Amino acid sequence: MAFAPKACSLFLVVLLGVCIQLNGAQYIPGARCKCPGTIMHIQEIIDDFEIIEKTHYCDTTEIIVTLAEDGATRCLNPVGRKAMFFINCWNKINKDDNKKKRCLKRKAE
Description:
Blueprint: H1 3-24, E1 46-52, E2 62-67, E3 73-76, H2 81-92, H3 100-105
């Protein structure tokens, strides 16, 4: 009868481990995006930008711009005019970080 409590304890430990793994692996769309909210338009001068493609953590393309005035970051809505400009320019320069300034020099309307 000494075997039953040990087997039961082992089963509970294994079950607890499985539950912890499953809890950590939950997929919640948009939960790991860098941009909790976006804006459609921005008038400030943009110093830099970053485009983060869709991943299994975040189901939207994210466009993060850095403002020249104070270094603050803003997230652009990917369907906005300025965001589309950055996405198209980023694709034209073959996603080369060294050529990003070309996109910033062009006038996005």
